[in-house]
Amino acid sequence: MFKPTQVCEGTRRLAMTTKQGRNYYKGTRTGAMGRHTKHGNYIIEYRKVRTYVVPAGLADTRLTPFVGTHIPAIKSRFEGYKDGFRGQYYLDRWKIENAFEESPAAPAGKA
Predict the structure, then answer these.
(1) How far apart are CA 102 and CA 111, in angstroms?
(2) Cα–Cα distance measured from residue 41 to residue 39, given in angstroms and rounded to the nearest whole number
(3) What's the chain's average pLDDT?
(4) What is the pTM of this model?
(5) What is the pLDDT of residues 17-58, one digit of tens each?
(6) Which residue in 10, 17, 34, 36 is deepest, having the highest Cβ count within 10 Å?
(7) Cβ pair 44, 33 in contact under 8 A
(8) From CA 84, how far away is CA 82, in angstroms rounded?
(9) Hey, is 80 helix, strand or coil?
(10) What distance in Å separates the CA atoms of residue 111 and residue 108, rounded to the nearest whole number?
């Protein structure tokens, strides 16, 4: 039976990345929204352009952005914290200022 050399075995292990070889473009799986012309222009084909529809009743929902509107912006100064500003401090403050929002229901079987 033919046994591949060590060099060949190494190339079969992992998928190719953008850092290996030239002329390899991984892409983002988003698809093209148009086409290139022979003159170097790009024509957008509007039947390919993605459109997003806002769900009905979104204005009446109680959902809010994760960041409260009354939390002041922090500009690279973290005074008053002994070990810098950590994410847990931010979450604690958000829970205090947005206590009116409902918390997700606990999974069944846990008390």
Answers:
(1) 18
(2) 6
(3) 75
(4) 0.31
(5) 777 777 777 777 778 889 999 999 999 999 998 888 888 888
(6) 34
(7) yes
(8) 6
(9) coil
(10) 8
